[in-house]
Amino acid sequence: MRSSVDVHNYLLDHEVHHELVPLQGPLRDLADAPGVLGLEATEVGRPTALFDEVGIVVVLAPADVVVDLGIVTGLLRRPGLAAVSADQSPGLTGYLLAVVPPVALDQPAEVVVDTRLAAKGVVYTAAGEAGVILKIPGDELVKATNAVVFPVTRA
Predict the structure, then answer these.
(1) pLDDT level of residue 27 (50, 70, 90 thresholds)
(2) How far apart are CA 66 and CA 68, in angstroms?
(3) 62 contacts 114 by C-beta, under 8 angstroms
(4) How far apart are CA 84 and CA 51, in angstroms?
(5) Concatenated DSSP letters for 86-133?
(6) What pTM did the predictor assign?
(7) What's the pLDDT at 76?
(8) How much is the average pLDDT of 19-48?
(9) Considering the chain, what is the average pLDDT of its residues?
(10) Span 4-149: which CATH code?
(11) What pLDDT is stored for residue 53 in this prediction?
């Protein structure tokens, strides 16, 4: 299983400014991060892992909303995308489902970042371990992942 060290090394290798921030305790879901860390929900990118026969897609959206699968499948023209289950995640991504980071996965992945996150000066997201969070500038996140930036939730 991979860890935040893999995420850190990937970002260092790609010369991406970032920090790994240790937490007081593990977070079971990044939806809890805004309250625990005193952040706005639009500063926390909660990952949603999807897959199909083409491969993995990691979608980052604000912590207080749910990704609209229809928007993502239409945007990427991949109608067969389905949510990765907790049992599938380690084998497909190398990480537990709740902490799938946007980089350093076991296989290449397409990344989609919600417009609201990409516009943030700093984004907090999964770092590959429950007790660590990745702090990264929004524009660096997009650059490091070659992400598609699009609004992926409905009001």
Answers:
(1) confident
(2) 6
(3) yes
(4) 6
(5) TTTHHHHHSS-GGG--SSS-SS-EEEEE-HHHHTSS-EEEE-SSTTEE
(6) 0.95
(7) 98
(8) 92
(9) 95
(10) 3.90.960.10
(11) 97
- Give the residue from 93, 70, 97 showing the smallest Cα distance to 6: 93
Report yes or no: 45 and 124 within 8 Å, Cβ to Cβ. Answer: yes
Q: What type of residue sits at position 100?
A: V
C-alpha distances out from residue 86 to 93, 95, 97, 98, Å: 11, 10, 5, 8
Beta-strand pair 44-51/148-149: unpaired
CB-CB contact of 136 with 143 (8 Å): no
Please identify which residue in the block is written with the tokens 């299983």. 1
At 28 the pLDDT is 84
Q: Collapsing DSSP states into helix, strand and coil, what is residue 74? A: helix
Number of residues written out for the chain? 155
- Listing DSSP states for 18-56 in one string gives -EEEE-SS--S-GGGHHHHHT--GGGEEEEEEEE-SS-E
Would you state the structure tokens that stand for residue 92, as one six-digit string?
A: 């497909």
The reported pLDDT for the residue numbered 155 is: 65
Q: What residues contact residue 66 under an 8 Å CB cut-off, 6+ apart?
A: 153
88: burial class by Cβ within 10 Å (0-12, 13-18, 19+)? middle
